[in-house]
Design a protein that fits this description.
Blueprint: E1 2-9, H1 18-32, E2 35-43, H2 52-62, E3 68-71, H3 74-77, H4 82-94, E4 98-101, H5 114-149, E5 154-155, E6 158-159, H6 163-174, H7 179-186, H8 190-197
Parallel strand pairs: 1-2, 1-3, 3-4
Antiparallel strand pairs: 5-6
Length: 203
């Protein structure tokens, strides 16, 4: 099996050396008969995934350049919080790459608890997507309310009261399009089209 070894120490860990982690990981890889594809090492806080070696490892995982990621401990892999940890391990799982931790064997996706852990990963990924969708809907609802309060019409991604939109309504009307066709073409309500036709073009 091709494996990637990942080690990390924080910049504040002056007395720590990533080699201490790598020695144990190499030993475990040798014991399992693994072929080490690459050793990825960061000397940076794990509070963010914006780590050079970590990002390189995740990209290589996406290209399936190895089958397993071995780390010394979960907090060496990431200390961003459990949701982010699940997000990263889910990304590995989706790429067909397993995860193995020396200090937390119960969380390994290769051990006897693999099915449970994978289920938790899948749940976390689904929960995150659901929450993201809810946040998007709430954001759109807030924008609609703000725009409506100003007497305008909300269009996702932009404001429909810009001068060019009013001008487009008037142009289509001048070409003979009915208000219904204009409303369908631009994505406005019939009442809004009628209102815009009565407005002067904003420059």
């Amino acid at each position: 099996m091709r494996v990637a070894l990942y080690a990390r120490v924080s910049t504040s860990d002056k007395d720590q050396n990533p080699e201490n982690q790598l020695v144990l990981l190499r030993r475990e890889a040798e014991r399992a008969g693994d072929t080490i594809y690459k050793e990825y090492v960061d000397e940076k806080s794990g509070g963010s995934s914006n780590r050079k070696a970590f990002q390189e490892m995740m990209k290589d995982a996406g290209k399936r350049r190895f089958d397993l990621v071995r780390v010394f401990a979960l907090d060496r892999f990431s200390s961003e919080g459990i949701e982010k940890v699940f997000e990263h391990t889910a990304a590995l799982e989706q790429a067909g790459v397993s995860f193995w931790s020396y200090c937390e064997p119960a969380l390994n996706t290769t051990g006897p608890m693999a099915s449970l852990f994978k289920s938790i990963i899948a749940w976390a990924a689904g929960y995150r997507n659901q929450r993201h969708s809810e946040n998007v809907r709430l954001g759109q609802a807030r924008k609609r309310a703000e725009v409506a309060a100003a007497g305008d019409e909300y269009v996702h991604g932009r404001r429909a009261t810009a001068g060019d939109v009013v001008a487009e309504v008037k142009r289509l009307s001048a070409e003979g399009s009915s208000q219904r066709k204009i409303a369908d073409a631009i994505g406005l309500s019939l009442g809004t089209v009628n209102k815009y036709l009565k407005q002067p073009i904003k420059l």
